[in-house]
Automatic annotation (TrEMBL):
It comes from the Bacteria. GO terms for molecular function: hydrolase activity. This is Type I phosphodiesterase/nucleotide pyrophosphatase. InterPro entries: Alkaline_phosphatase_core_sf, Phosphodiest/P_Trfase.
Amino acid sequence: MTIAEVVPSLLSGLDVPGADNTLDLPSARRVVLLLVDGLGHELLRTHADHAPFLAALPGRESSAGFPSTTATSLASIGTGLLSGEHGIVGYTFCVGDEVLNALTWSRAGDHHHDLRKTLVPEVVQPHPTLFERAAAAGVAVSAVAPMNHRTSGLTRAVLRGSWFRGTAGFGDLALGAVAALGQDRAFCYAYHADLDTIGHFYGPGSDEWLLQLEFVDALAERIASRLPRDSMLVVTADHGMITTSDRIDFDTEPVLWEGVRVIAGEPRVRYLHTGSAEVLDVWREFLGSRADVLSREEAVDAGWFGPVGPLAFDRIGDVVVAMKGSAVVVRSQAEPVLSNLKGIHGSRTRAELAIPVLFHRSS
């Protein structure tokens, strides 16, 4: 069970052709899907006393897919495909000669270099979205998310097909999500980012994070209390998070540079585009038990990315480095902010992959 199955399972109850309820979720004619960035299943279970409303909801556990990072998971939410098919294979990845930051749709390391014209989002991710399919079937489809997401490259790439309502905070997110259910058949995707942001800077489970979790719990409860009849709130996440304490700095380890033409990804999962077959062995020996270091072919054969098509294959890189434990491969010079984050995600541990799928039906 993966994040790619969440929206099709919900759209099946809205009579969208080809949408199958593989997660066996309850059906409703009007649905709000609230995606809370960073709300991992393990974190919610561990800190259930800070989220009594969410902790009491029925539901099940699913998987974010690999890599367990926001851009990839949102692409799976929007397309119903895993990363090997939709091609958004991480936070940063190579598309031709460019290294694309998929969240900002800019050149990696240079947020001012907008790539929406040269790497057209609808070309980088060309598969039809589930929102487009639902709208074509007569469902009123809405996206309620931060205002600056409206014309972003990622929204165009993976969430196109919905009517967009920009938000500034909790209040208009909750009211906007409920207002989107005015039609007889309606589906609203609502997104909240701040729990993930707090987790990155202060660490998951910190006092700051726990207070933010309480706010998220209240947000979900407020939406649920305002739902019209025959409606359902579903709460899920894009990934979990760990606290990092073991840093390997690529920028200060010359042994890791040899043969590496481009390094992409993020601290918990790195893609190495290489000019030497020896890179694989060097990284395996250097990282040892702190990482799974596989060739692209090995990672694809192991099913890490799900089915892999030609769109994603070259973007994955020649070597895939999936960190274990609390280890990260940072770049102190090229990625100073990212390198100092306390909370991190992206790899294949249960804490990062496991996500909740919770539901509340209105009476």
